[in-house]
Every structure is written in C-alpha cells, then in structure tokens.
Design a protein that fits this description.
Number of strands: 11
CATH architecture of the largest domain: 3-Layer(aba) Sandwich
Oligomer: single chain
Order of helices and strands: HEHEHEHEEEHEHEHEEHHHHEHH
Strand order of the largest sheet: 2-1-3-10-4-11
Radius of gyration: 19 Å
Number of domains: 2
Number of helices: 13
Helix content: 25-40%
Largest sheet: 6 strands, mixed
Distance between the termini: 20 Å
CATH class of the largest domain: Alpha Beta
Shape: globular
CATH superfamily of the largest domain: Periplasmic binding protein-like II
Length: about 350
C-alpha cells in the first residue's frame, strides 16, 4: 500500500521540454555531520493516515534514533508536497501522481526513494446498488477524487483505456474524508480512492469495485502488482524538500531515515499482522479494516532506475496531453539519487528472502 496523495497551484511557467530517458542527477551533497550535531536535528516528516509512523513502529525502527522526528499529518499527497516545497516539512511518502503535479508547479522538492506494490487497492468504487457496470457507463457521471493524488492518475488512465476524455465525466475534487461522506450520501456516482479507504468503503459503505488498478472490472486479485493492462504503475515515493537536502544536518538525517523506511517496508511484508495492528493503534482504524488493507499487499522498496522515471514521465505526459497539467516537463529534474545505493542495498536484501 502506498500512501497516496488544497491542490498545489500550477505555475504559469514554461518548463524545459522533456525526454523519457534522461538520467536523474543529484544536486551537490553536503558533508555528513557528526553524532553530536545530528542529535540536534529535528526531521519534520509528513504522514498520511499514520502510514509511515506505524510502519516504522511495527518494525521497531523508531527506537534509538540519532535525531528527533516531528510528525505532521496530511489528508493526501498534494498538500504534503506543498508543505515540503515551502520548507514546512522535510520529507514524506506520496503516491505516483503528486510529485508530477508538484513538478508542474516547479516545486522545490525531489523524489529520493521509491517503492512499489499492490495495485488492486487503487479502485473506482460505486454503491452496491449502482446501475453502473462498465467504465463506459461513467460517461456523464460524477467521480469523486482528490486532485493530484494517485487516484487522479487511475481515473485518467481508466478513461483513456475506455477511449473517454476527461471532459466526458465530471470530476468532483474532494479529500478522502469529504469523498467518503459524499459517497455514502450518494452525492457522487463513483469514488476513485486507495487503501485503507478502499477497504473501509467495502466494509462500511456497501461499496462495489467498478474497476481497480489491475484493470480488471469488478476488481482483480488482491496483492497484484502492476502488469499488462494495469491502470497504475503501483509506485510510491519518499519526497524531500530541497531545503532539507541542502542542509548538512537534515541531509544526514534523511539518509538514515530513507534506509530505516526501506527496512520497515521489508519487515512489514514479512510481518503483515504486526503492521496492521500498529496501523490500527496509531490511527484508530478498525483493526479489521487495517488487516484487510494490509493483506491486499504491502509495498517493497525499489531502485530509482531510468525505467521507473520513464514510467512516471509517461504518466506526466498523459496529464499534459489531457490538458490537466499545463505544459511538458522533465520528471528526471525532480529526482535525486544521492541515497540510491543505500536504498538499493536494502531492496536487494529484501528480494533475496
């Protein structure tokens, strides 16, 4: 599960023309600070629905930190990245689409590590008694979605797969709690959302899956990762503010944090019940909802390869072609690989189990 994603205003700015194979480059990296200076650092971490904090708690990786963490909670990825760009937080996890909206606004952020996992929890839901049965049935209907979130990307790709235009539907831009209320009151015809909200809606709101991220009408097999016909690439990203990356103390803390987070992803895949219990305890989620969300599948850390960046570039270009984003830009310009070797080592160790 990825933590997915108050919209960041789009800059009226013409960015450089893009190429999908351009390598990502790291900015100059400040020297690491020593133990005494690191102890004075407070890393401000943006979280969604307790996703990162509970993940690290479950793995026991918040013990004996050599720096302090200050947590801030966000409803989705776009406002989290707006805060990171402004320096209000230093880092946070989002889905595959918020970094693209931030990049289009020339935000002061950089993707610093990646993860990938289950896409069956990325869904377009309808009420159980809805007459809607196919994607084509969405023509003229209202879909609730958080603007700039990973669910927005699923909606776009779903419409394109059905040869529909964005203009063929009405998008109601709502944050998850607002959309849940609108869905249960049947103020919207469909809701594009991610876990744990998918599991919560299926359990508590008599929702039915119209299609999910696997591209399967009615929903595919839980735990399925992106494959042929998938409507999402299943990526999530740790994204840092440029100010934090340029600060020697915070950069040192970030290097430690991204490694801990990657280790926590591996741990939780091996201990899903512990991860669910920690998530429910941290957030007040119904334990059964947390368990259902976890058992759909958990993310694993991945290397930020050129192929990953190219996948994101294709999604960015699709948003531009649909005139949702204003102009073409280069995703690689918003990727920083300074921690790549550290994360790859953790990813490789997890894959060998």
């Amino acid at each position: 599960m990825r933590p997915r994603n108050l919209l960041i205003p789009l800059a009226a700015l013409v960015l450089a023309a893009c190429g999908t194979t351009a390598p990502a480059k790291s900015a100059p990296v400040p020297d690491a600070v020593g133990t005494a200076d690191l102890a004075k650092v407070t890393l401000k971490v943006g979280d969604q629905k307790g996703g990162q904090k509970s993940l690290l708690e479950a793995a026991g990786l918040l013990k004996d930190l050599p720096y302090q963490i200050e947590w801030a909670t966000f409803t989705s990825g776009p406002p989290l990245l707006e805060a990171a760009s402004a320096g209000a937080i230093d880092v946070g996890v989002v889905g595959n689409t918020p970094p693209l909206f931030a990049a289009a606004a020339n935000a002061k952020i950089a993707v610093v590590s990646g993860q990938q996992g289950d896409v069956s929890s990325d869904t377009i839901l309808v009420p159980a008694d809805s007459p809607l049965r196919t994607i084509e049935d969405l023509r003229g209907k209202t879909i609730g979605v958080a603007k700039g979130s990973s669910a927005h990307g699923v909606v776009l790709n779903t419409l394109l797969a059905a040869k529909l235009q964005v203009s063929d539907v009405k998008l109601s831009f709502l944050q998850p709690s607002e959309a849940f209320a609108a869905f249960t009151q049947k103020q919207i015809d469909a809701w594009a959302i991610w876990d744990p909200y998918t599991s919560q809606a299926l359990r508590d709101a008599k929702a039915r899956i119209l299609i999910d991220g696997t591209g399967t009408p009615g929903g595919g097999t839980a735990g399925t990762e992106a494959g042929a016909g998938a409507l999402t690439n299943g990526y999530g990203f740790l994204v840092a503010g440029r100010a934090a990356l340029d600060d020697a103390g915070k950069n040192t803390a970030l290097r430690d944090y991204v490694v801990r987070y990657a280790k926590a992803l591996n741990y939780s895949r091996a201990h899903p019940d512990e991860r669910a219990a920690a998530w429910a305890k941290e957030t007040g989620l119904d334990p059964q909802v947390a368990l259902a969300a976890v058992h759909r599948g958990l993310d694993h850390p991945i290397d930020l390869t050129d192929a990953v960046i190219a996948d994101e570039q294709r999604l960015a270009d699709a948003f531009v072609a649909a005139k949702v984003l204003p102009t073409k830009f280069t995703v690689a310009d918003f990727v920083d690989r300074r921690f790549a070797a550290d994360v790859k080592a953790v990813a490789d160790s997890g894959a060998q189990r």
